[in-house]
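Progress report, Aim 2. The chain analyzed during this reporting quarter is listed below.
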Amino acid sequence: MLKKLIKYDLKSMSRAFIPMWILAPVVSLLLSFSIRGTIAWANSSIPGRQMLTLGNGILTAVMVILFIGAGMGLLIMTVVFVIQRFWNGLLKEEGYLMFTLPVKTWELIVSKAVTATLISSISAVVGVFSAIILAVCSTEEVVRTLAMAWKYFLSYLIHVDPIFWIDLVLFILVLVAGTVKSIYHVYAAMSLGHLFQTHKVVGSCVSYIGISMVVSIITNIIGTVVSLALPDDWTYYWGFTYREGMFGMLSAAYLLYMLVFALLETMVYHVITERILSTKLNLE
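Predicted structure tokens for the chain:
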């Protein structure tokens, strides 16, 4: 049943996101062509090149505005849909239907979280892909610079320490876990805000800030304890023992700590959300 819930949420959300996922790369490609055209007209010697350069420059400015608008629209749209799908789907009238389904409360929460994570990840990939298109297709100088950087990166990979791959895998896992944690943070805040008799939206915002403050205090305490437990010259080993593999090991340990802490946060947020929706929910 969980797979069916995820499939339903993905289908309903993708209808709104697919046009934006297509629009962002297209605008990026058009902007890159416009930049190329402006540079070409400026360097040409044909009569009337100044007017052509000016016209192309105006078109480029318009495309820049569209590109920024598409990027901001995709970001805002992702945030709004993550919030709206949970709020309307489980805390408002639609919740009456969702909670009559033969599924457990945790499945409803997980389906929303998985869908939100996938949508957020795809939007992030689309944003990066659009930026790459803009960089690669804009000017020859950028292309040559990126080609040199890629060549250097490939040569670096040949001689890289094996711990680099561990760091890379941990870094990707931290990004994914951080995304899930952020989504669950919002879910927990909305669930707590729904306990307010009135002004539930304000209550959700206050809950979000309160949770953030508590987490910040806890992380500061842990950081202080860890720094006191480490030897006084630990910064020396961090910065000057890369060739001995200590840098990679320390970075892997730090990434592992971030991953574990993000997973623990997510578990706490899930328990808070599940308990409220199971025992304290008062649908409007």
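The chain is about 85% helix and 0% strand. The longest helix spans residues 2-43. These observations will guide the mutagenesis work planned for the next reporting period.
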